[in-house]
Description:
This is DNA-binding transcriptional response regulator, NtrC family, contains REC, AAA-type ATPase, and a Fis-type DNA-binding domains. This protein is α/β, with parallel strands linked by helices.
Amino acid sequence: xxxxxxxxxxxxxxxxxxxxxxxxxxxxxxxxxxxxxxxxxxxxxxxxxxxxxxxxxxxxxxxxxxxxxxxxxxxxxxxxxxxxxxxxxxxxxxxxxxxxxxxxxxxxxxxxxxxxxxxxxxxxxxxxxxxxxxxxxxxxxxxxxxxxxxxxxxxxxxxxxxxxxxxxxxxxxxxxxxxxxxxxxxxxxxxxxxxxxxxxxxxxxxxxxxxxxxxxxxxxxxxxxxxxxxxxxxxxxxxxxxxxxxxxxxxxxxxxxxxxxxxxxxxxxxxxxxxxxxxxxxxxxxxxxxxxxxxxxxxxxxxxxxxxxxxxxxxxxxxxxxxxxxxxxxxxxxxxxxxxxxxxxxxxxxxxxxxxxxxxxxxxxxxxxxxxxxxxxxxxxxxxxxxxxxxxxxxxxxxxxxxxxxxxxxxxxxxxxxxxxxxxxxxxxxxxxxxxxxxxx
Length: 441
């Protein structure tokens, strides 16, 4: 499966065909058009992410065509090609939304990396658009039909219009942030901001400055006043994810916000007042943490005015294939089906990481997949007892080399993104690329 599909629009047929052939040799799927009208029609017929478009076409200005394409497909990246470039044209092209504007005849060493970077930008734009659409859909963005999920959604819908603080409980990866966004969208605060922070992801000192902000000179490096998330969320919602990991001294400050809406910035002497609704989430048993002395009892009761338990994915097996189909559409521009053995493996698996694990699994299999259907042999050897992979017959070094190559191809050679997907450091990736002699990316 190759989801890297682009369109070349140029009325010079020989040049169009040559450019298409060069890009096909780089592993791209290329569609060709010799007029602007043909190009617009091709965009409607195919899932295209990048367009190479001549500036002078018989029926359109390639620069004006940029604006038309952007209106229809905002995430598509367009590179204008011209025989005689001018500064005025390049400025207009970029204003219309072109990714770049280059002169014909530039060698492949410039064209090919530029196309790869354009694909990366298109993928990011598409994900951002999907995320915006998801955020705006509220409860409609929550995928699933199981009764246990329907009950959780029903309870969340009831509390959303109120001013009550909400405590979301559930294992890591069960969708607590998605529920928080849905509650915000259905609340009286929907026109205002939802600000979110993960209390376990940053240090205590940084958490305090991020939440409350600081005055210029409050500490070394504080070169100007900064608004914290509380001020930014004023009139809206503050989502405190993994609040069970918040340090005790910070818990006291959050309690004050919940009690009277006041706080003090770092380095300030004046009290500020805000009006925010707080939605908190944790995978921990907060009552047990209260017993251990790790969490304030008064804060617990302030937060848990309305408590909502989110179900584990293992308790909503009916939703696994629906979620898998959603993630396939999210990560692939091609139409990809799931084989029966692949579906069976997903249904039998013990999803300890819940929806997040399923999402990562689908992303990984799409990276490895080269066809229009996903089979169980794309899953890891220890995925579940009924699933084995073709990599059993290979030694570990060969498997690693193949996997790194696949991910590099998937990211169009983006080393930072490749390292993230592989779960290794950037320096480790470069060392392994040198070890296996895969330095062409």
